[in-house]
Amino acid sequence: MHSGLEVSDENDAISDPDIVMALVGNKADLHENREVPVQDGIDYAEKNGMFFIETSAKTADNINQLFETCLELKSLIIIWQEIAKRLSRPSSL
């Protein structure tokens, strides 16, 4: 069954918890020509540890949001890594 989703086969990147990955549906401005239902994109992204967003390069819809979300998620990863490091250190008390 071909859903119209084409994804790069970068299994190493998908399994690396330090990498923020997004599944981006482009050409969101062409609703009438949609080949992949939004829910398919959401489901695939969730199954593979990504977030899903639709964008339009033509109208610039969600372009800034895409990069802002990537930055926010990467910041959270860094914060959680720092917390984990601090929790794993022996107490000096």
Automatic annotation (TrEMBL):
Signal peptide: none
Nucleotide-binding listed as a keyword: yes
InterPro entries: P-loop_NTPase, Small_GTPase
Organism classification: Eukaryota, Viridiplantae, Streptophyta, Embryophyta, Tracheophyta
Keywords: Nucleotide-binding
Annotated GO MF terms: GTP binding; GTPase activity
Protein name, per record: Uncharacterized protein
A Pfam family this chain is assigned to: Ras
Coiled coil: none
SMART domains: RAB
The keyword Signal is assigned to this record: no
SUPFAM superfamilies: P-loop containing nucleoside triphosphate hydrolases
